[in-house]
Design brief:
It contains 22 helices and 40 strands. With 823 residues, it is α+β, with helices and mostly antiparallel strands.
């Protein structure tokens, strides 16, 4: 249910209780005045009743002196008074019935003291706790649907259905509310009990209205206080009367309208029968007032015993409350103790890590002093010593994190840009620190998910400790090494204003001298990197331009053969191009639908893989004998050497860097599959965790894979966990960019991960941390003014690192290409 719809139920929320607006109840009856002194003149007995009712936790609809209502939801353990009365095994306990009846009389008395006529004094409008506490769940929709419109002012404000408009109260079917109420109240009953129900509840509820209608109301007169007293008489009779069937029940209750009692009632409960006759008098004026009922000898005579019963119930409820409080405190103590133990473990682990870092720093200092004594000049800023210098800087930075956090305001002027970035992302860095530590100390054969409390500091892990600390430090140094992405050059093309310039894929050649772009303009353009970087010209022309009959979806440069580019297109055709000759070298046409991705193996440059919307991954060997020939185009057509069939579209394929025997691909079924090509019948492992289509997969190294999805995340996977067939716990989840519907590109280099965003930005992550390290926003250029403008409809469509360097090429959906560098 939406929050804005809560008001439809007529509840006012105040603190932790829900109550009806007092103005609603008073407006229904002009005789009611909240500022009058009615309550002040009430008898001492009424005062004690009010006090007791205000003290009761389970009242639903009791009135307080301020004319408000004590409202609570029906508890799961409560039972409808109607169900309780019709229970087949119920045995009449006179004292119990009298206690229930007195509670209901007190409710009616309180309502009458406010000038309110209760039309719904029926068992279905009351619930009862296990300790016989009666609660009123009266609803306006329970009132007679054919009663005079004038009587609407006397109806209590709707509590169960919460109808907002008073005039709508009588448009609701009574049976509809009764059935709805029954469904709520029977929630605690099992299906088996419902099947064995002796009385058909729906039928009883339909007849209940007739039983509790007073003679004057049956003749068309509006309900009155006397009508409520009549209903009390019917209810008292039902409390003491038991029946064996619904037919007998209906016959007995119908006879009651004529004041005819069954003989067992007259013989066993003569006082009850006499009191009922007084309440059921056919003339309203001859019935007692509600205060006369309360002061009658029938109710006051057993007062002492009733008070003892109420006191026992109060004591039992207080005991239950205390028991509940005790249970709460014990659970809280347990959880706080667990938190304290966990915190002690964390402090112990951090302390041991600090000691290890201090040892490493001391070792570096000794080596430095040894080199100095040998006369070796150590240049602090030289590249060869940058790592150790960075190590010492990071060590000092880490050891002073706690102090910096509390004294940031004092040291803000002296803090470095790196310290500022560290503190801004301190929580996420802390989380990554503990996550890395847990993985390092996790048992080798353990496939269990990480535990928050798993912090080991035993000496048996001393060897692992220095290894993971160096790994975390390396990631921290690389994360903080660069501060921004700087534009080194803009690639300006002659057809920049064309509407079909979206770049789908880019790739660098083996040596990083050239890079190629391809997209929906059906062209592969090859640019010389140095000429773009150093050239000072208005328009950059490609050194090679190759045209296809279909839009390109992906390209990949052969890492061994410098002049060879593979491509896939929207027609499902995979092509290998000879850049030096500016022509297609061979074509592969086995895909039945659009091919999304193509990749050359770095370990075996003759091996090529492609993935398609037809749910297949095709493997090709470009050195195999030509099996077919396309005489129309003159191009060679190659047959695949292997096929992997899946049930969903394949969006990306990728070979690992050091092997031609393995392959990973991302699928539209939200999964990443990892195959051993020597046994392609089933995957070695499936990586499960994305919520939408996996659009890209890339190997960071031989044991680490990153995937990109349209669920706004990148995920890092550890291939060493492939011992379990399904891995559903990624090493890292990267968030910060926006990607819900487009292919935005993915590229990796030396632990850095670049991706595009639908906010027209480029984001760079480092594999060690879940938040972006750097970002750059494209701004579109106005073709008329030449000024840069922010276009929300554009997105970055492709990114590509320049061969393990800090230089990145990025393109957006307008065809704008920029050479960026981390600085």
């Amino acid at each position: 249910m939406k929050m804005e719809n809560i008001s439809e139920f007529g509840y006012q929320v105040s603190g932790s209780s829900r109550g009806l607006s007092s103005s609603e109840a008073s407006n229904r009856n002009p005789r009611s005045d909240h500022d009058s002194a009615i309550i002040a003149d009430r008898t001492r007995q009424d005062k004690s009743v009010l006090t007791r009712l205000n003290r009761v936790r389970t009242q639903f609809g009791y009135f307080r002196e301020d004319a408000g209502a004590v409202i609570r939801p029906v508890e799961h353990k409560d039972v409808s008074l109607r169900q309780w009365l019709d229970e087949r095994t119920r045995v009449v306990n006179a004292f119990e019935c009298l206690h229930i009846f007195i509670q209901i009389v007190e409710i009616v008395n309180l309502a009458h003291s406010q000038g309110i006529v209760l039309h719904n004094i029926r068992p279905s409008c009351f619930v009862m706790s296990s300790l016989n506490r009666v609660s009123f769940i009266e609803s306006a929709s329970c009132s007679d649907s054919d009663s005079d419109s004038e009587s609407n002012d006397d109806v209590l404000t709707s509590q169960k259905t919460g109808l907002k408009d008073q005039n709508l109260a009588h448009t609701v079917s009574e049976n509809t509310w009764l059935q709805s109420s029954l469904e709520n109240l029977e929630a605690s009953c099992s299906e088996q009990t419902e099947k064995k129900q002796h009385f058909p509840m729906k039928r009883i509820l339909e007849m209940e209205t007739d039983w509790y209608t007073s003679p004057e109301e049956a003749e068309g007169s509006p309900g009155s206080f006397a009508s409520d007293v009549y209903r009390l008489g019917v209810l008292l009779f039902e409390l003491y009367c038991t029946c064996n069937s619904a037919e007998e029940k209906n016959a007995t209750m119908s006879s009651l309208r004529h004041r005819v009692f069954p003989p067992p009632i007259l013989l066993k409960w003569p006082k009850v029968a006499l009191f009922c006759l007084w309440l059921l008098h056919p003339e309203p004026a001859s019935r007692p007032k509600i205060d006369e009922v309360l002061q009658s000898e029938f109710l006051t005579e057993p007062k002492d015993k009733l008070d003892e019963r109420v006191a026992a119930i109060d004591l039992k409820e207080k005991f239950d409350d205390q028991d509940l409080l005790l249970e709460f405190l014990l659970v809280m103590q347990q959880r706080k103790q667990e938190a304290a133990d966990n915190l002690r473990n964390i402090v112990s682990a951090v302390t041991s890590d600090l000691q290890e870092v201090a040892k490493l720093e001391s070792l570096i200092n000794r080596k430095q002093e040894s080199n100095t004594n040998l006369g070796v000049q150590v240049v602090q800023d030289s590249p060869n010593n940058s790592s150790s210098s960075g190590f010492r800087k990071r060590t000092r930075l880490i050891t002073n994190v706690h102090q910096n956090e509390y004294h940031a305001s004092e040291n803000r002027g002296n803090s470095s840009a790196q310290s500022s970035r560290l503190m801004r992302n301190f929580r996420k860095l802390e989380s990554a620190y503990f996550s890395t530590r847990r993985r390092a100390f996790r048992p080798v054969n353990s496939n269990s998910k990480e535990s928050v409390s798993d912090f080991s500091s035993d000496d048996q892990f001393a060897g692992r400790r220095s290894k993971w600390i160096n790994s975390f430090l390396d990631g921290l140094c690389k994360y903080l090494s660069f501060s921004k992405l700087k534009v080194k050059a803009d690639l300006k093309q002659a057809d920049l204003l064309s509407s079909s310039n979206l770049v789908c894929s880019m790739s660098f050649d083996r040596d990083g001298d050239f890079f190629a772009t391809a997209g929906v303009n059906k062209k592969i353009k090859v640019f010389e990197y140095d000429s773009i970087l150093n050239g000072n010209c208005d328009i950059h022309y490609p050194v090679v331009e190759m045209t296809s009959r279909s839009k390109f979806s992906s390209i990949c440069w052969n890492s061994y053969i410098k002049g060879q580019i593979a491509s896939s297109n929207f027609d499902g055709v995979v092509q290998v191009w000879d850049v030096t000759r500016n022509e297609v070298y061979m074509e592969m046409r086995e895909h039945e639908k659009r091919a999304w991705s193509v990749d050359f193996s770095s370990a075996d440059p003759t091996l090529l893989a492609s993935g398609s919307d037809d749910g297949s991954v095709k493997l090709w060997n470009i050195n195999q004998a030509i099996l077919l020939s396309d005489y129309q185009s003159g191009n060679s057509i190659l047959a695949s050497v292997g096929t992997i069939k899946t049930k969903a579209n394949v969006c990306s394929v990728q070979f690992p860097l050091d092997s031609g025997n393995s392959l990973a691909f991302g699928s539209a079924d939200h999964r990443v599959y990892y195959y051993d090509l020597r046994n392609p019948s089933k995957p070695v492992c499936m990586f499960v965790g994305h919520e939408k289509t996996v659009s890209y997969v890339k190997f960071i190294d031989s044991t680490t894979l990153v995937s990109s999805s349209t669920d706004n995340t990148l995920k890092l996977w550890d291939l060493s966990e492939c011992s379990s067939h399904v891995v559903d716990c990624p090493v890292q989840s990267f968030t910060g960019h926006t990607n819900v519907k487009n292919f935005v590109g993915l590229s990796v280099s030396d632990g850095y991960i670049a991706t595009g965003s639908e906010t027209n930005e480029v984001f760079v992550y480092h594999k060690a941390f879940p938040m972006p390290a750097l970002s750059y926003k494209f701004n579109s250029t106005d073709p008329l003014s030449g000024d840069e403008v922010d276009d929300a409809e554009q997105f970055v469509s492709s990114v590509c690192w320049r061969n393990q360097s800090s230089t990145l090429v990025a393109a957006n959906s307008m065809g704008d290409i920029k050479l960026l560098e981390m600085v």
